[in-house]
Amino acid sequence: MKRFLHPQNWIPPLRPLIEAYLSIAARFIRPDPSVVICGAMNGLLYGDNSQHLFEWMLEHRPDLSPVWITRSWKTWRRIRSAGRPALLAYSPRALHALLRARVGVFTDNLHDISMDPWILPKTLSLIALRHGRSVKRVRFARRAHKISAEEAERRRFEGELTRYAISTSEFISELQELCLEIGPEKHVVTGYPRNDALLQTPDSQRQAWNRFMGGRSFRKVILYAPSWRHGRYFTRFFPFDDFDLEALEHFLEEHDCLMLLRPHRLDLGYPENRAYLAELSRQEHVQLATHEELPDVNSFLPFIDSLICDYSALYHDYLLLDRPMLFVPYDIEDFESQNGFLYPYLECLPGPDVRNFPGFLSKLGEIMDDRDPHREARHRLRDRIHAHQDAGATARVVALIDEIRAESS
Q: Is residue 408 very low, low, confident or very high in pLDDT (cuts 50, 70, 90)?
């Protein structure tokens, strides 16, 4: 019974009925160009570029009526409790909103804004805000670990509905087209709305960070946030044969440093990974920073002194803060063969490549001592990734929304 109640099982059989309902309802529901549909992260979470754009429109554009659509009761309650407009994707009101709107924004896929991708009306022009463009090849650009025929069909449909896909530079637009295959003319360089807050951090984010820290303070806070492996296996933290947890805790204590661990939310589905992360976080100077504790990673990047990463798009965003990074590409050979890279990864690396635990502590020591030998490498990559290095990305995206709305008036 529980299996049947899962939306992916009951929606497909009911799709003809839902489409018939939408066809009839469309005759009576008048378009409203002020309505902007917003969603993100597979329709389950509240965050990313869509959240930053959504809240900006609510605050700065009273002539617009943005509404968040989610497939999660928990997320719906959270947004509503904050006094912001939200609809459950399975409700008639959400279906009606899709018919009224002429513009929608999403980050990951069409499930961000709909209970079923195939029922989205073709009168809706979409702006793909993206989850970020990393160095790794994804979607149609993957080398060996290809997407399924079913996913490819959904992605092609998504591309048809997509009017614009935002990016951070012409260089990134070219890489993005390799992955999305939606047409080079659809990529527009605006920068990411979520990165505006890196350069102009609102008080609300400082308050949220202070609540998370609970009155504690450290000389340095380091975020360890590696990339997802696309379900092939879970991502390993401290993947060193000679890893010594006691030595790590001693190092962090000696330098008055807090290390935050942020696993990909899908990697928490592995029991052995959850157990390992729980063991790590029992240390006084190691703490989890999952989507439960901090839903939107970019909201707390301004308070991070250094980033530990591998192939994640997060390090592209972090370049805007011009702070030290170090990299742990422990499975680079496998990643190169399965995904591949969109540009020479090691050649452009804006920080040290660490492969063992003594080297890891050594490079952390440089950060603790405020030594920064990779500043020039960071600047070179930053200037390729980010054409706009200001806090104006959200306004530029809203200008795209206004362009589409003007056509519907």
A: confident
Q: Which CATH superfamily is domain 24-197+391-408 in?
A: CDP-glycerol glycerophosphotransferase, N-terminal domain (3.40.50.11820)
| Closest CA relative to residue 58, chosen from 32, 86, 81 | 86
Question: What are the structure tokens assigned to 231, written together?
Answer: 């379900």
Angle at 388 between CA 383 and CA 392, to 5 degrees: 155
Give the CA angle between residues 46, 114, 23 to the nearest 5°.
Answer: 150
CATH class of this structure's domain 204-385: alpha beta
Mean pLDDT for the stretch of residues 73-82? 97
* Residue 392 token pair: 């104006």
Give the integer Cα–Cα distance in Å for 53 and 57: 6
**What are residue 306's DSSP bridge partners?**
222
Confidence (pTM): 0.92
Is residue 271 helix, strand or coil?
helix
pLDDT of residue 4: 44
Residue spans of the domains in the chain: they are 24-197+391-408, 204-385
